[in-house]
Amino acid sequence: MQLLQFTDKGIYCPVGDFYIDPWQPVQKAVITHAHSDHARGGSQNYLCHHDSVPILKLRLGPDISVQGVAYGETIRMNGVTISLHPAGHVIGSAQIRVALNNEVWVASGDYKTEHDGISAAFEPVPCQTFITECTFGLPIYNWQPQQVVFDNIRQWVHENQQAGKTSVLLGYSLGKAQRLLYHLKDISPEIWAHGAIYITNQMLREHGWDLPELHRITPETPHSVFKNNLVIGPPSAADTTWMRRFNPYSLGVCSGWMQVRGHMRRRNADAGFILSDHADWNGLLSAVKATGAEKVYTTHGFSSAFARYLQENGIPAEEVKTEYGVTEEEETNPS
């Protein structure tokens, strides 16, 4: 019997009787991070990193039963040892290490190998079996250092200010938005935000995170306040009436998908910044190598291509179908 199994409800540990990031309600759910494709409502009990607890409560409801643990702290379920280790994806994200006797599996959830300056930096965890995401599992995805990207964003904002335009950046309310705010907090006199961004930012500030204070955009916010300032919104705000209030504005999209020509045009963006909270091709390869895994399971993204590459390079690998990788939610958050 495998220590972890892939079922129609999610990644299951039969001996420990718990699931990792289940996509159906279960009794015990161990959560890698609070994005909606990995943390879904309806389960009876949740286990996650301490920093994910308030985010889960914000997203799944304040009355959920959730236990938070520190990185490296061990929990035992029916003799199975569980510990959480930094994934570097977003605040509170973790890789789940599962061990029984001398067998060790690691479910990575989502991760990136470059330290973003705010979430805990990725740490490879030695194991025999590694379950890896493959969101950007093709050689064409090769990120520049984030400082280069932020320098480019700063230059773009400066040019917009010189032209009397509002700079509107789109990025997910959990992860991308915090990186933008942390690294661009002094870029304009004021930073305005969509409700989805504002609510998450306020909650994190209340829990001690060093993030700038935002101004929430409401239907009553006067048009004049946006000129020469920065606005941050979720990807779902693109091509909606919400955008019209900023005219004249320039729209920038922050995403790893901007690496591929044509994505910026399809998003009707004026600028595309290649900024991702996922590992690029080299990051995925370095993570796999650092674990020393004897077997790799590839999930969500270019999982087939990445598994084939590993196989061709002497690493046993197998693609697994999951329900991860669905666009991280924004539509249900208030504007």
From TrEMBL:
Gene3D superfamilies, sorted: Ribonuclease Z/Hydroxyacylglutathione hydrolase-like
Coiled-coil regions listed in the entry: none
Keywords per UniProt: Exonuclease, Hydrolase, Ligase, Nuclease
GO MF entries: exonuclease activity; ligase activity; RNA endonuclease activity
Top-rank lineage group of the source organism: Bacteria
InterPro entries assigned to the protein according to its UniProt record, in alphabetical order: MBL (IPR050698), RibonucZ/Hydroxyglut_hydro (IPR036866), Xnuc_lig_assoc (IPR026360)
EC number(s) reported in the record: 3.1.-.-
Name of this protein: Ligase-associated DNA damage response exonuclease
Species whose genome carries this gene: Chitinophaga silvisoli
Organism taxonomic ancestry: Bacteria, Pseudomonadati, Bacteroidota, Chitinophagia, Chitinophagales
